[in-house]
Structure formats: C-alpha cells, structure tokens
Amino acid sequence: MLTLSNNVEIPAWQLEFSAIRAQGAGGQNVNKVSTAIHLKFDIKRSSLPQFYKERLLALKDSRITKEGVIVIKAQSHRSQEMNKEESLERLKALILDAIKVQKARRDTKPTRSSQRKRVDSKVKKGQTKQLRKRVDY
Questions:
Q1: Which positions ≥6 away from 90 have C-beta within 8 Å?
Q2: Which are the contacts of 70, defined by CB distance < 8 A and separation ≥ 6?
Q3: What gap in Å lies between CA 125 and CA 31, rounded to an integer?
C-alpha cells in the first residue's frame, strides 16, 4: 500500500511490479540476477480521486503512456527490494507533484529607479562604443 496523504492511498493490488535485468556495468551479477524493477500503475483504473486522475493524465511526462499507464524503471541499486522502494518513492513524488496547484503569477511594474538605472547603463554602453569608432579629421 502506498500512502499519499491522510485520506488517499493506493492499494497494493493496483501496483504491478516486474523484475527485469538491469542495464550497464556490474559484472556477472548483472547477467545472472534480475534486480531492476518495472512499476506499472494504471491511472484510469485506479482508486485515486478524480482530481488526481485528471491532473496526472494532463501531465506531459514520458513515463505516462497514451493509455494512461505510469511506467517507472528503477535499477540504481543492487537489490530488488531497494529498487522496489525507489520506484514507489518516485511514483509518490510524481503524483504529489502533479496535484500541486501552481500559484498564479502577477505581473509587477519595474520601479522608476530601476528604469532610470537601465537607461543610464544603456547610454553609458553606447558612449563607450562611440569612443571605439574610427576618428575622422
């Protein structure tokens, strides 16, 4: 079971784990043991609240398929258990990031002083460049 908040949980039967062989260096252990984990979570068939589902499906994330299945591959650890824990943490982080409501940005007006400083610096740069020009007699 994966707990997201006090009243939202994902039951274990909705999470599908499969062990696969990890990629990369690691010697004989990599070739013999399936330590990497693929975690699959179907958003549409889950028991998450509708708000969570809508926000997740609206994400433009490469880990979410067109069918609405989140696929997370964890292979950084040497043990299957550690990779399983890491995949659960990454799923939790993805869901919690998706439901965060972004604060609306309000446009601010630059101060008169900052406008003046900006124009003064532009004038100074222009004068410096003017002095670099060729002198005609």
A1: 39, 72, 74
A2: 39, 40, 41, 43, 56, 63, 64, 91, 94
A3: 63
DSSP-derived pairing of the beta strands 36-42 and 2-3: unpaired
- Distance separating alpha carbons of residues 99 and 6, to the nearest angstrom: 15
* Angle ∠(14,68,57) on CA atoms, nearest 5: 110
Burial of 7 (0-12, 13-18, 19+ CB in 10 A): exposed
Q: In whole angstroms, how large is the CA radius of gyration of the chain?
A: 27
Q: Are 22 and 75 in contact (CB under 8 A)?
A: yes
3-state secondary structure of 128: helix
Pairing of strands 36-42, 15-20: antiparallel
- List pLDDT tens digits, range 2-32: 888 878 888 889 899 999 888 877 677 777 7
